[in-house]
Amino acid sequence: MSKNLIPNNPIENPGLPAHTPRQTDLDPKAEKRAERQVASLFMLSAISTVGFIYSYVWVKSDVYTFIPILGDMNVQQLLLGLFMAGGFLFIGIGAIAWARQLMPDSEVIAHRHEFRSSDEDRKEFVETVKTQGAAAGIGRRPLIKRTLGAALGLVGLGPIVLLRDLGPLPGKDLETTSWKAGTRLVTDPGDRPIKASELEVGAVVQTMPELAAGEERTLNNTAKDPVLLIRLRPEDFNLDSERLSWTHEGIIAFSKICSHMGCAVALYEQQTHHLLCPCHQSTFDVTRAAKVIFGPAARPLPQLAITVDSEGYLVAKQPFTEPVGPSFWERNSQ
Amino acid sequence: MSAKETVPAAVANFVDERTGAAKWLKKNLTKVFPDHWSFLLGEIVLYSFIILLATGTFLTFWFDPSSKEVIYNGAYEPLKGLKMSAAYESALHISFDVRGGLLMRQIHHWAAIIFMAGMILHMLRVFFTGAFRKPREFNWVIGIGLLTLGIIEGFLGYSLPDDLLSGTGIRITEAIIQAFPVVGSYLAFFVFGGPFPGESFIPRIYTVHVLLLPGIFLALITAHLMLVWYQKHTQYPGPGRTEKNVVGYPLMPIYMAKAGGFFFVVFGVIALLGAIASINPIWMYGPYTPGQISAGSQPDFYMGWIDGLVRMAPPLETHFLGHTISWNILIPGLIIPGLVFTPMALYPWIESWITGDKREHHLLDRPRNVPNRTAIGAAVMMFFFVALLNGGNDLIATHFNSSINHIMWFARIGIIVLPIITFFVTKRICLSLQRADRELVLHGRETGRLVRLPHGEFVEVHEPLSKEEIWKLTSHEQPGALALPETDVNGVARRGRLVSKLRANWSASNAVQIPKPSALEIEDSKHH
């Protein structure tokens, strides 16, 4: 195998260098001084602990102070922390100083043993396994061997099956939202219906579907329903006729849930008409139906077709035509 | 006899008669531990783990792991009257209404950061010095396991308060689970107990965070330490140190005092950080709601590299027969981390396969003396560095006023190119350092003392190295390349010729070294 693994050292191992005594080994005064230093450090720790208890009991817990660089600090929390740090640090520094200055510092040598067992032990081990194994007769009784294998393989399924009730099956949940034809877009927060005339060119509004009386909005709805309304000059759009018919007087609506990993696409650049997701910087071009122009997202944000109802409020013309949010195996993206 | 003498004897007698521990303790109380600053890195990890257990237990006394909606009515004015989860409310309660609660939260979080950073530094030390080699491969694998679990444990921990930032992290995790082909949406619905976000996730990850994973940690750390104890610590090469001995200080009293003292120092430093350095100020983010987000969303650093990979992924999805596969999530989120961590875990065996070295090693390598390994380590570090950098590309863009698109493209190209460049540059640096060592051994140390010779020439006096110093610079091995014949003894082509050729090439590249000075050369140099 390898030809050059024997160490070819130019000189012999010179052995451990001679021990150099420390000041504390030679001078009893230095030794006494070191002893006093260590004791003082331990005393400082004790004083810190007293300070800690004092701060806990007697310092008011709602007083704040401004400290440069650190910012606004709660005085009690700060003092508790500083005294706790002192209580621990001084014990630690004291113990290390004790070890370094006063405990013997000459290095000692211990021997290593090889981990490999002796050939005899290894042989006996194999023999033992063989004879003890033969006593059970597992080699001679293939029927037992096979049925045991099958049983052991199956028994693990029990706990796995038990996990089934962790949650319901997805069904069509990932593919649906609360938006229906005629659902009003209401401001979020505020739950106020919106008239097209309220939006100026360049405006962005976060909206949610209007709730029926008595309905509560859940976080599960909030994870799928948010829609961004953006008003552009109609001539800025670069859409096909179908998508253009989904807009209303320059107002276009997109799902706010990123088609990449589901973050809220919250950054809108008014000048460039770009929507940017703060999580992974996927960038969508509003004028081209939220086409991805940068970043890891692979699909545009789903567009919600909007129009106005008889009272002039903005409503959804139809539900989303594709699932909102991140991709999943069953998603039909054609 | 005074009580001072009789009481310890009585205690020792009581214990020994029931356990027979005296024999074991007699031997092990003087167990020798080598001393080096880099051996403290693993200790930092162990101590921060203990701090995590202690502060974490304190936090559980008030934390309510529930997604039930409540109206906030605590001490923090700006959030009063807001709807939020009970988890977030109780985290605010700990921060503002429990005396020392904020301190404990911040110590817990800082300890987690130091736990992870310490593990990474400890792993780098073990890697670059070759401490993972036989017989310590098990401990290397356990270490990789701890690192992986640490990433998960840390992520679950900062997800628990259910603030706007951590909720966004959970949302991204849900998208990764959902991206699994075939079973993704089922898995996501099982994990979350229904559609995202649901009310099950926080209580479920709470059990995993405070019971399941810490239990596994305890078991793995125990095994890790028992192996260190049994196999004895490695040591750096030096005079008096050999493969057959271990040189250092006895456990009692020196190592006990130093290591015990160091525990208090680590706790003290983390407490100091918790006191003065604000971390994860959850009250600034507000409660989680999926419709909102804060700009500059960043995970903790040990997750940042995965986020950076996800950010730089190309927008690839496959659509076929009504199904979707999100390569833009699967590749950076699952496939690349797997491709990085698996070879990392197997590295001890990969290296010994390439070098053909199956012997035990207890003396550490100086990184320069193993150029290929050092270069591989540096290249992998560069890979993680570029990924991490891109995980903060939005902050870099806003702080340094640069284009986020440029940073992303730099990362996309750099993640492939920079590790390769790093490999070759590091290897050259290692060889240069070997050359410098050789130079030093043969010509001694420059003293800066200039002497004018009788005939007017100026020379600098070089001081020869001591025997100890020469030993330090020359006692390492320089493995040769493996000789792997392409045909066997009968002249028939060996099977797996391509693999064998690859191995021979790697082994040859591994054997590129600057020759150590020989005894003759050293002797010769003395007469100059």
Task: Describe the SSE topology.
The complex is a heterodimer of chains A (334) and B (528).
Chain A: H1 23-26, H2 28-58, E1 64-67, E2 71-74, H3 75-101, E3 108-111, H4 119-136, H5 142-155, H6 157-162, E4 185-187, E5 204-209, H7 219-222, E6 227-231, H8 241-245, E7 251-255, E8 267-269, E9 274-276, E10 283-285, E11 291-294, E12 303-304, E13 306-308, E14 314-316
Antiparallel strand pairs in A: 1-2, 4-5, 5-6, 6-7, 7-12, 8-9, 9-10, 10-11, 13-14
Chain B: H1 3-19, H2 21-28, E1 32-33, H3 40-60, E2 69-71, E3 83-85, H4 86-96, H5 101-128, H6 137-159, H7 164-178, H8 184-192, H9 201-231, E4 245-250, H10 251-276, H11 282-285, H12 301-312, E5 317-320, E6 323-326, H13 327-355, H14 371-391, H15 393-399, H16 404-443, E7 445-452, E8 458-463, H17 467-474, H18 497-510, H19 519-525
Antiparallel strand pairs in B: 1-4, 2-3, 5-6, 7-8
Helix pairs in contact in B: 3-5, 3-10, 4-5, 5-6, 5-10, 6-9, 6-13, 7-8, 12-13, 12-14, 14-16
Poorly predicted ranges of chain A (pLDDT <50, ≥5 residues)? Answer: 1-5
Mean pLDDT over the full residue set of chain B: 93
In percent, how much strand structure appears in the residues of chain B? 5-15%
Q: Which two chains have the most extensive interface, and how many residues on each?
A: A-B, 105 and 130 residues
N- and C-termini, Cα separation of chain B = 69 Å
Query: Radius of gyration of chain A from the CA trace?
Result: 37 Å
* N-to-C SSE string of chain A, H for helix and E for strand: HHEEHEHHHEEHEHEEEEEEEE
